[in-house]
Design goal:
140 residues, alpha+beta, globular, disordered N terminus
Length: 140
């Protein structure tokens, strides 16, 4: 924490620290045009009050994995942005890590649809199933 009278440079340095997503330690296991697999560990600081990995962090994991995969299916001057996200939470991630496997459902010129299954690796149990739509954006 810092006090009101603290030096502006030290406050700026605090803001330039590690990005939030890096602090969560998401990691890529597979990155190919056919599928992207990412994982995150269940840690006490990421768990909900029942000890399961917090659902919003699973949603972020799903979105990142699908976004990376969909980015492989656009041209060099294009990018993607999430247009919609639907998640069915089926079971809590208790042991972990949570493993998200993203695959392409359909890659069109303006919209790409991906599916992501999340498993609790330690329990070998399907934890969530998701579909996402990504809008394809041309360079500005």
């Amino acid at each position: 924490s810092f006090s009101v009278g603290e030096n502006t440079d030290s406050v700026r340095r605090m803001a330039e620290t590690v990005h939030l997503l890096e602090q969560l330690n998401y990691r890529t296991v597979v990155d190919s045009p056919e599928r992207v697999i990412m994982e995150i560990d269940n840690r006490p600081d990421l768990a909900n009050t029942r000890g399961a990995l917090q659902g919003g962090l699973l949603a972020t994991l799903i979105d990142i994995a699908a976004g990376i995969l969909c980015g492989h299916h656009v041209g060099p001057d294009q990018s993607v942005t999430t247009a919609d996200l639907n998640i069915h939470y089926l079971a809590p991630v208790i042991e972990g890590p949570a493993r998200a496997e993203a695959t392409i459902v359909r890659a069109g010129r303006r919209l790409i649809v991906a599916a992501v299954d999340v498993t609790d690796v330690g329990r070998d149990r399907l934890a969530a199933r998701s579909t996402l739509g990504f809008a394809v954006l041309d360079a500005r």
